[in-house]
Amino acid sequence: METIQVGKAIRDLRNYLRLSQKELAEGICTQSLISQIEGGDVSPSADVLYKIANRFGVDINYFFDITDCPRLDYVQEVFFQIRQEVRKRNYRSVSKMIESEMSNPLFQTKVNQQFMLWHRAICLFYIHGEARKSLDLLKQAIELTDTTSKNFSERQIEILTSTAIIYSEIGDFKNSISYYEMALFHLKKRPVVQDKSIKIRILYNYAKTLTTTRDYQGSLDQVNRGIKLCIEHEIMCLFGELHFQKGKNLIGLDFIQKGIQYLEKAMLIFELEGNEPFATIVSNEIITYTNVG
């Protein structure tokens, strides 16, 4: 086991998990020693390596077999592809990807198991309609992170959002709203948020649930917050969907013409994005409400 190779593996995993050297070293060794190990200057003792492995949530054998494991950028690419397919609602494709990686050693780490469990739960609901099993898996996924009830990770917050969405899908709006509020609460407590789109996704899905319950004004408030964030951070994520939802809420509040204007903005955004299916849906909505008006 080469010192430089082990040091690089530790550094890559630490960066991947977004831990500082100080956070990794706490209760194990000094930050200086972590720096030396990552730099390949010293080799960690068996005891220190074991504790580092536990901190990462990986088996200590990971460091002995690292040359046979895929690189972390491969894991990140798989995660990216899964998230892309989820947004396209290609749940069967997601399920196949998860199945194909089940035996991959790199996906046995706690953090990677959490990601896979989260998306297995989503597939279980949308492919098989098994809400209770899906919610149980989401709960297990949240508990896989070594955080406390006071400091949820960004991924845990995303899992809370998935839980809220499923509760909304089955008509349990009370629990759904509770989980959206919980997600926003924990997101607000984070000192730094790496993924600025997380809050936008929470606000959009929260708004959809409120619209379903006919709380149009409450939904409109969430939509306006989401649109503001999109503009502030120059993020197109859900920009069209938020305008569509704003139009629906305004129509629900009897501001028909103003609502149609926002539906038209949404259609334009979808057309610019090349999202013809959504543009067609919005176009049909505009025709419907124009005729009603």
TrEMBL record:
InterPro entries membership: Cro/C1-type_HTH, HTH-type_regulator_Rgg, Lambda_DNA-bd_dom_sf, PlcR_TPR, TPR-like_helical_dom_sf
UniProt source species: Alkalihalobacterium chitinilyticum
Protein name per UniProt: Helix-turn-helix transcriptional regulator
The organism's place on the tree of life at top rank: Bacteria
Start and end residues of each HTH cro/C1-type domain: 10-63
Pfam families according to UniProt: HTH_3 (PF01381), RNPP_C (PF18768)
